[in-house]
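Curious: can you check?
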Amino acid sequence: MRKISVIIPCYNCERTLEVALSSVYDQNLQIAFEIIMVDDGSTDGTGELMKLLEKKYKYVRCLAHEKNRGGGAARNTGIRQSDGDLIFCLDSDDVLPAGSLAKMIDRLDEKKCDGVVFEKNIYFKDDINSPLSEAANKVSETPLSLTGLFDDQEKSFMTLSNFLYAREAYTAAGGYPEHHSFDTQHFGYVFLSRGLKAYTCPGAFYYIRIGYKNRTYFQRAYEAGDMSINMYLIYEDIIHLLSPRIIKEIFYFDIFQKTKMVTDEIAAYINSLYAADKNDFFIQAHENYLQPDGFKRRCESIGASEDLAGLFMEAICLHKDGRYSEALEKYQKLAAEGIDSKVMYFNVMRCMVALTGKYGKAETEKEALKISGSMRPKKQKVLILPPKLTATLVKIKNILKI
């Protein structure tokens, strides 16, 4: 029997949660459904409200994290405890218009695809009947493509953050990342980079609440100055599909200081590079690597590389495999040529922290950011390692006792 699992990550959302939850019951669903709410360490009355809602509404289950772990972790917890063959993650301050999910399920069946996105996002503050603005997907009868995440003409990124997908697609995409707070955006990039197919559903809309009192995961990350760092972590998962020119631009970007949205953060810059030269943005025939094992296959295809782009890509691949010492060797090769950047410093720290074995993936990233937060290294050309990088490694070893 078919079933859809609606997952609602909850954090300090006592003023908006019931509105979001109740909208699920207006979806005209013709298949079984369940709703799983996950309290992500809320500090207000969200937890108590969830217990009341569980009694008030049918097919609702409540789960909880002892401490705040982020939206990605909350979504993963809910999905792992669910049993539907279809999944939709609803933000606790957003609203589903009547019948949207039913339309999306029909569209998924019609196209025999892995996921379906909304035709339109409608932004509101307090009342969905008084919208502030909207953004529409222009791609309709063709599947969304990875290029659409960079192409202003396609706008496919508009609604790829919250969408309906099959459980098998969730598994193929590796779930939501838990090591940074742009988890839904990241999931969308990985979804398309692994060859999964998604179509737009005409007539399906999604109401997004903005300007409300409680800040979203995205807002908190942006205010903390993590905009470019988080987007860089997204690009890591698709870097094997990018041309050497774009890889170098990512490598040299100052992810610590250039963080202002649209004007100087990395996403705006990378998008501008795509607009300037679409033909030298992805590698040729990048479609051949749009598979779950595409990253490894791409690294194997280039062999032992000695250029910046190749070494950087190999280091990231090794890091993903948990081969941190080997990844460090790649960065040392770059440093020996007098090549360095803040992205490299950050990645060296991530490897060093991971080598302690003290932390899980999410905690490793946070610890690396904590150590690097006060660093503002400058480029220096020396034979083995830039002095600041050498000093930093000694400091990290002392701190981590490795």
Summary: Residues 227-400 form one domain. Strands lie at 3-10, 32-40, 60-65, 86-89, 115-124, 133-136, 164-166, 198-209.
